[in-house]
Specification:
By secondary structure, the protein is mainly alpha-helical. It has a domain of 27 residues. The protein has two helices and no strands. Helix 1 packs antiparallel against helix 2. The radius of gyration is 16 Å and the shape is elongated. It starts with a helix and ends in a 10-residue tail after the last helix. 4% of the residues are buried. The model has no long low-confidence stretch (mean pLDDT 90).
């Protein structure tokens, strides 16, 4: 379970870093659109991978959702 938590947090951090790189390229006066596109492509890929990881982990029973408000 600790490995799964580490993978999830690591993937979330990688998504944020990729989004930050794209934001920096957008904010620069002479930013490189190719770098921004590459960073956003990585972000989308990492988001899809995170979703697949969460679905797999829930299906295998590695993570168990808890009921809030019950």
């Amino acid at each position: 379970m600790d490995l799964m938590r580490l993978l999830i947090v690591g993937t979330l951090l990688a998504i944020l870093v990729s989004l930050g790189v794209a934001l920096l390229q957008l904010g620069r006066r002479k930013g490189d659109p190719a770098k921004m596109l590459r960073a956003l492509t990585w972000r989308v890929g990492l988001s899809v991978a995170l979703l697949a990881l969460l679905l797999l982990a829930a299906r295998q029973g590695w993570i168990v959702p808890h009921a809030l408000g019950r």
